[in-house]
Amino acid sequence: MKLVAAVIKPFKLDDVREALADIGVSGITVIEVKGFGRQKGHTELYRGAEYVVDFLPKIKIEIAVDDALVDKVIEAISGAARTGKIGDGKIFVFDLSHVIRIRTGETGPDAL
Amino acid sequence: MIDRLIRRGVAPVLLALAALLPTLALAQDTPTLDTGDTAWMLVATALVLFMTLPGLALFYAGMVRAKNVLSVLMQCFAIASLMSLLWAIYGYSLAFTDGGGLNDWVGGLSKLFLAGVTVDAVSGSIPESLFMVFQMTFFIITPALIVGAFAERMKFSAMLWFMAIWGTLIYIPIAHWVWGGGWIGGMGALDFAGGTVVHINAGIAGLVAALVLGRRKGYPGTAMPPHNLGLTVVGASMLWVGWFGFNAGSELAADGTAAMAMVVTQISTATAALTWMFLEWLRHGKPSVLGIATGAIAGLVAITPASGTAGPMGAIAIGFGGAFFAFIASTMVKRSLGYDDSLDVWGVHGIAGIVGALLTGVFADASLGGAGLAEGMTIASQVWVQFVSILATLIYGGIGSFVILKVVDWTIGLRVTEEQETEGLDIAQHDERGYIL
How close A47 comes to chain B (CA, Å)? Predict the structure, then answer.
C-alpha cells in the first residue's frame, strides 16, 4: 500500500477529485495549507505600503491506495492539476505499513 | 454657515430694508420656524452622526489588524458619547454664543448647560435645539477622525483625556473663530461645512499625535495589512452617504444652496475616487479597493469647505486636486519621511482639507461657476484669506495638540506597553476579542 500526498493549486481541487473518482479511488483527505516552492509568494499593496506574502494558499490531498493503483493515481493527479505554469505543485509517494478501518476493525487493503 | 445665520438673523441688509418696508421687515425680524427646513435638518443631523457611528468606525476598523478591531470601534463609540456631554455642558455655549470682549477668540458662558435652549428657542428658521445638536455631531466626528493616526498603540484612558482636552481647547475655539462670530469668519474666510474646523484641524492633530506617540512596534518593516477591507468599504460608503447631511445640512435650510451642496459633493467624490484609482493603476499596475475608497474620502474632504459656494465643474477640479495631493502624501511622502500616521489622517484629511480650502477661494468666483465672492474680494484676496485661516488652524491646532499630548504623557502615559501592543489592544485594553471563530 502507498500513501500519495499531493500539493496542488486550490482551484484544481474539483478536477483532481473527479479524475480520482473516475479511476476508482474511494476516498481522499483534503487539507488547506500554505507554503512556497519555486513560485515564491506575491506582493500586496495598501496605500503604497508593499508587503511580500511569502506563503501562498495551496491544497494538500492525501490518498491511501493499493500498490496496483499508484501509477494511475499519479497520472490522474498530474493530468488534472497541471496548468503548465509555475506553482502547479508536487506529488509525494510514501510506503504505507498499516491501515485499519475503525468501524469494522478490518486491516490492510480490505480497509482501503 | 455663519453668513446664513447673519442673513436670517439681524443682518445689516434687513436693517436697510426696514427703512424701506417697515411692516415686512418687522415680520422677518422675528425668527420664524420653517417646518421644511426643520424636517431636513433633523435628517441631516442623523446623517452626520451616522458618519461616525458606524461609518468612520467601520472605515477604520477594517484597516487595523484583527487584534485591534474592537479598540478603534470602542474609541469612536466612546468619543461620540463623551463629546455629546461636553457639548451640552459647555461646548455649545463657548463655540456659538457671544464672547463679549473676547468674541474674536471664544464664545461666552450664557448657554452653559444649554440654558435658554428651550423647546421654543429658534435659530434662523430651525429650532435652536436642532442647530445645537447638528453642531454636536461635528464636535463628535472631528476627534473621532484623529483616532486613525494613533491607532493600534494608544492607551484608552489617555485617548479619553486627550480628546476631552483637545475638544475643549482646540476644537471649540476654532469652531468659534470660523462659525461662531470669531475672527476667521470675520475676515471673510469661506468654510461652508468644516474644511478648516473639522478636517485640517483633525489632520494636524493626527500628524502631531503620530509623531509624539511614535511608530507602531515593527513599523515599517513588519507587514501590517488591513484585516478586513470589506468593513472599510462599507464604512467609506456610509461616510459618503452621511456626508450629504454634513455638507448639504450646513446650509441649515432646505433650499437651492443645500441642493447644490449635495450635487457638488457627489461630483467631487466621484472624481476623487476615480482619480485615486487611476493614479494607483498607473503607478502600481492594479486599481485597488482601498485606493478607490480612500480617494472618495479625499474628495469628500476637499469639497467640504467649498460645498456652499462651488459649482459642479469647480467640484471636478476640487475633487481631482484633493485626491491627487492626498495620494502623494499618503502613499509616497509618508513612507519616505517614515512617520506612522497609521490610517492617514494627515495624508487624507489634512492634505485634501488644505487643497479644498485653498480651491474654495478659487471656485467660489462666479466666472468659474461659483456662487460669487463677497463684494470687494478677488480670487487672489479670497485665496489669501483662505491661506491665513489654514495657517492659523495648523499653528494653533498643531502646537495645542503637542502640548496636550505631552501633558497627558507626563501624567498618565500615552502608549500601551510593548507587550500589550503585541498582544493587541482588544485583549490588553478591553479583555475582549473581535473574532471568536
Answer: 5
Q: What is the pTM of this model?
A: 0.86
Q: Mean pLDDT across the stretch A18-38?
A: 92
Separation between Cα atoms, residue B248 and residue B261, nearest integer Å:
5
pLDDT over 90 at B23, yes or no: no
Task: Give the minimum alpha-carbon distance from A54 to chain B in angstroms, rounded to a whole number.
Answer: 11
B291 lies within 8 A of chain A by CB: yes
- How far are the Cα atoms of B6, B38, B106, B133, B140 from residue B126, in angstroms, in the given order? 14, 5, 24, 12, 21
Please, what is the end-to-end C-alpha distance for chain B in angstroms? 48
CA–CA separation, B352 vs B302, rounded Å?
5
Asked whether this complex has an ipTM greater than 0.85, the answer is no
What's the rounded Cα separation, in Å, for the pair B118 and B98? 18
CB of A46 within 8 Å of a chain B CB? The answer is yes
Alpha helical stretches, state H, B218-255: 229-249
Q: Which residues contact B71 (CB under 8 A, 6 or more apart)?
A: B64, B151, B152, B156, B424, B425, B426, B429, B430
| Residue B357 one-letter amino acid | A
Arithmetic mean of pLDDT, B286-295: 97
Distance CA B84, CA A111 (A): 70
Name the closest residue on chain B to residue A53, using Cα atoms: B223
Cell, residue B295? 480617494
| Whole-angstrom distance, CA of residue A41 vs CA of residue A45 | 13
Interface check A38 vs B, CB under 8 A: no
Rounded distance between C-alpha atoms, residue B98 and residue B90, angstroms: 13
- Alpha-carbon dihedral B199, B202, B205, B210, rounded to 10 degrees: -100
Q: Which of B175, B147, B133, B153 is nearest to B79 (CA)?
A: B147
For chain B, the farthest-separated pair of C-alpha atoms sits apart, in whole angstroms, at 74
The model's pLDDT over A34-91, given as tens digits with 9 standing for 90+, comes to 998 888 778 888 988 888 888 889 999 999 999 999 999 999 999 999 999 999 999 9
Round to the nearest angstrom and report the end-to-end CA distance of chain A. Answer: 9
- State how far residue A55 is from chain B, nearest Cα, in angstroms: 13
- Could you count the other beta carbons within 10 Å of the beta carbon of residue A13? 17
Q: Is the pLDDT of residue B16 over 50?
A: no
Residues paired with A43 in a beta bridge: A52
For residues A7 and A55, is the Cβ–Cβ distance under 8 A? Answer: no
**Which residue is closest to A48 within chain B, CA to CA?**
B331
Is B331 in Cβ contact with A44 (below 8 Å)? no
- Rama region for B296: left / alpha / beta (φ>0; ψ in -120 to 50; rest): alpha
